[in-house]
């Protein structure tokens, strides 16, 4: 028996999902272990192996595929502990990364920070001006060399940077994506002069127009590259000691996984990649259940992440923002805020109002109720006070919670607010739920989507606790808690079953009407590159799949819209149909009537996603169904505070593992699984569908 294994490291827990050859699933959850996350990684494998009656070494030796979602790069950026980076660029253009765009560093900031001028200033430089070197070279917009590279200047620049103690060197020349040879020659010089220094070329990472965005991308890649490389190499060494000899795979922001060696070279692809795996798992389950439009919501211990699946396809973006730096990268569009189970409750000194997050208690020490030294109240403490969580059955009884400690931690806040402890806890839950609903609106309404056309998927350890409220605020009808208890490890399941993926891009800005030979030539070249890379990964040509798209715009505009492109040879009628799809997509994003069909249209970027399908979990429908829950499923009744009723009320508590397909339960009710709790509010109803998903029907949905 061989296995596919996926591991996702969050701020509080490390999740492990193992899929066997028949698609059966085994799960395990271990505490995350910062700063040495590899320890929690291996502990989660050990716990999963025990359930299979194996040791960790034996499980790894039988594992055909090991995929990992890592937050090392993200943590490096957030904590500002990246490498000391030097930049080599075209003479006269050394200030590009500091000038930025006209938005002056505002992108990526919350509204309250934008309005507070000191907070909306430019970010702390990833590369200080003292570590920027300019060399003589110049390529024009057609890829023609205007000024030859001065290798003597380049060598002197490298030696100066090395003498200043840089750990990484970023290389970005003007129009290098049209003619990358100058960058590659400087990279070869770095390798010869300072082989231990991490080095990246912008043309290899982001072969697109936009000198600022390419510079930002290569700078960020070098900033996190050495840390990511050290972590992956250390982890691979420990896995090899236990007998795992195959390539480690790493989740990437574009959707899917890529070999660890490529993740080291292109470390910036791992940023925000953890939540992407959950979107992929939601897409797979949504196709099975017949849900083409999904709002995928992941509430873990530290953050709340939102992504969309529209028309059975994850909604993507071509631009990302890290620490206020904008750069181009094809990725699944994820929105995140610091609202998780470990988010800290506090009172704003100026307004006197109750706030939740973005700071988190994390895994160490964690919420006060964990009894591990935490002193600041969190969302989990509030949930325990309200009766949503069972102190004796948290994580299936593996961790006993201290309700008295949670109560005592909230008391000081309650006194300052002039409220009771229960009122304060309920208010905190409402604040975090409304914050999450607001983020979903930003991901839907502000992008041209109506949330009422979607089904909400709620996963992560804390998602099903609060989904009944934030989904109701959106006007949606249905919430799906996917595969019951597996929902708390949903991103790990997505990593275990994610397809191998490589993304290739080429820029050639041409107006309509389009030349079929030119368009087909670009796609053919990108697909050939994908075939060669997949062959290096051990994938046969017949197992490879390709998905095309193009970034298009109205001539004279600077913002593009990604449009799907069919496979095969594109004749003139196909290209005319592509223009029509662009008009439709443009109006979906910017509003009905926003397009201008009389204008000429440009293709800016050609894109090919080359992938190889992976083993998926077997999700089979149960044959036996019963509307009424069995008596043994009712564990007890406990007092739960319901905001809608304004009081505590005895509420039935069911064990999720004892319910059977077709069971229907009216709210208020609580359903407990070992790794999550589903809260069903008054006026709502939950059913266990034949595939093991809990489906909550909301009152008042549109």
Can you give a write-up of this model?
The protein is α+β, with helices and mostly antiparallel strands and 702 residues long. The protein is 32% helix and 28% strand. It is built from 18 helices and 33 strands. The strands form eight sheets. Strands 13, 14, 15, 18, 21, 22, 29, 32 and 33 form a nine-stranded mixed β-sheet that branches. Helix 3 (72-79) crosses helix 9. The longest helix has 31 residues, at 211-241. The radius of gyration is 26 Å and the shape is globular.
Portion in strands: 25-35%
Coarse morphology: globular
SS summary, helix count: 18
Poorly predicted segments: none
What gap, in angstroms, lies between the N and C termini?
A: 48 Å
Query: Sheet bearing the most strands, described?
Result: 9 strands, mixed
Helix content, binned percent: 25-40%
**What would you call the quaternary organization?**
single chain
List keywords for this structure.
six-stranded mixed β-sheet, 702 residues, alpha+beta
Reconstruct the topology from this structure:
Blueprint: E1 3-9, E2 13-20, E3 25-31, H1 37-51, H2 56-61, E4 63-69, H3 72-79, E5 85-90, H4 96-99, H5 111-115, E6 132-135, E7 138-139, E8 145-147, H6 151-163, E9 168-172, H7 181-193, E10 198-201, H8 202-205, H9 211-241, E11 248-251, E12 257-259, H10 260-265, H11 274-289, E13 294-299, E14 304-310, E15 313-314, E16 316-322, E17 325-332, E18 334-337, E19 343-347, E20 354-360, H12 379-386, H13 403-417, H14 421-444, E21 455-459, H15 463-474, E22 478-481, H16 490-497, E23 500-511, H17 516-536, E24 544-554, E25 561-565, H18 572-590, E26 601-612, E27 634-642, E28 647-655, E29 664-666, E30 669-673, E31 676-680, E32 685-688, E33 694-697
Parallel strand pairs: 1-4, 4-11, 5-6, 5-9, 9-10, 13-21, 21-22, 28-30
Antiparallel strand pairs: 1-2, 2-3, 7-8, 11-12, 13-14, 14-15, 14-18, 16-17, 19-20, 22-33, 23-26, 24-25, 24-26, 27-28, 29-32, 30-31, 32-33
């Amino acid at each position: 028996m061989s296995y596919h294994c996926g591991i996702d490291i969050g701020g509080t827990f490390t999740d492990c999902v193992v899929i066997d050859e028949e698609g059966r699933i085994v799960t395990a959850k271990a505490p995350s272990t910062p700063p040495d996350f590899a320890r929690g990684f291996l502990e989660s494998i050990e716990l999963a192996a025990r359930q299979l009656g194996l040791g960790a070494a034996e499980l790894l030796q039988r594992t055909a595929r090991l995929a990992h979602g890592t937050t090392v790069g993200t943590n490096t950026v957030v904590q500002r502990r990246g490498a000391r980076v030097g930049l080599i660029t075209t003479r006269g253009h050394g200030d590009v990364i500091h000038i930025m765009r006209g938005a002056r560093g505002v992108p990526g900031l919350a509204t309250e920070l934008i309005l507070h001028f000191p907070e909306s200033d430019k970010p702390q430089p990833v590369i200080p001006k003292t570590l920027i070197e300019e060399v003589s070279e110049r390529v024009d917009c057609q890829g023609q060399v205007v000024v030859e590279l001065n290798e003597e200047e380049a060598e002197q620049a490298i030696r100066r940077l090395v003498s200043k103690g840089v750990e990484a060197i970023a290389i970005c020349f003007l129009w290098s994506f049209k003619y990358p040879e100058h960058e590659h020659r400087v990279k070869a010089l770095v390798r010869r002069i300072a082989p231990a220094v991490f080095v990246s070329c912008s043309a290899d990472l982001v072969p697109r127009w936009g000198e600022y965005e390419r510079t930002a991308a290569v700078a960020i890649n070098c900033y996190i590259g050495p840390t990511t490389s050290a972590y992956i190499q250390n982890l691979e060494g420990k896995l090899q000691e236990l007998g795992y000899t195959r390539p480690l795979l790493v989740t990437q922001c574009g959707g899917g996984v890529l070999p660890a060696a490529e993740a080291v070279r292109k470390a910036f692809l791992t940023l925000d990649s953890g939540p992407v795996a959950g979107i992929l798992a939601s897409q797979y389950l949504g196709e099975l259940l017949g849900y083409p439009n999904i709002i995928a919501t992941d509430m873990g211990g530290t953050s709340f992440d939102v992504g969309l699946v529209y028309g059975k396809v994850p909604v993507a973006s071509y631009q990302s923002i890290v620490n206020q730096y904008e750069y181009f990268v094809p990725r699944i569009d994820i929105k995140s805020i610091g609202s998780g189970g470990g988010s800290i409750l506090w009172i704003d000194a100026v307004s006197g109002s109750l706030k939740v997050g973005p700071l988190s208690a994390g895994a160490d020490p964690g919420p006060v109720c964990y009894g591990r030294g935490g002193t600041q109240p969190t969302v989990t403490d509030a949930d325990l006070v309200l009766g949503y969580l069972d102190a004796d059955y948290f994580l299936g009884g593996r961790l006993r919670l201290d309700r008295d400690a949670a109560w005592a931690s909230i008391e000081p806040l309650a006194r300052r607010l002039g409220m009771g402890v229960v009122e304060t806890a309920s208010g905190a839950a409402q604040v975090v739920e409304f914050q999450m609903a607001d983020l979903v609106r930003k991901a839907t309404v502000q992008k041209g989507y109506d949330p009422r056309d979607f089904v909400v998927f709620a996963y992560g350890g804390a998602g099903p606790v609060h989904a009944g409220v934030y989904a109701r605020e959106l006007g949606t009808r249905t919430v799906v808690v996917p595969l019951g208890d597996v929902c708390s490890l949903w991103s790990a399941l997505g990593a275990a079953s994610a397809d191998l993926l490589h993304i290739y891009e080429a820029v050639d800005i041409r107006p309509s009407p389009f030349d079929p030979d030119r368009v087909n030539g670009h796609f053919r070249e990108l697909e050939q590159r994908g075939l060669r890379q997949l062959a290096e990964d051990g994938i046969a040509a017949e197992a490879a799949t390709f998905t095309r798209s193009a970034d298009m715009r109205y001539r004279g505009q600077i913002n593009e819209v990604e449009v799907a492109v069919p496979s095969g040879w594109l004749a003139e009628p196909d290209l005319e149909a592509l223009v029509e799809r662009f008009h439709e997509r443009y109006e979906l994003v910017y509003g009905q009537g926003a397009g201008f069909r009389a204008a000429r249209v440009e293709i800016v970027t050609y894109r090919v996603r080359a992938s190889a399908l992976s083993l998926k979990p077997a999700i089979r429908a149960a044959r036996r169904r019963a509307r009424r829950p069995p008596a043994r499923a009712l564990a007890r009744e406990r007092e739960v505070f319901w905001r809608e009723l304004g009081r505590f009320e005895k509420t039935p508590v069911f064990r999720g593992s004892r319910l059977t397909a077709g069971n229907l339960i009216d709210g208020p009710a609580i359903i407990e699984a070992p790794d999550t709790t589903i809260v069903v509010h008054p006026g709502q109803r939950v059913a266990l569908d034949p595939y093991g998903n809990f489906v909550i029907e909301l009152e008042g949905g549109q």
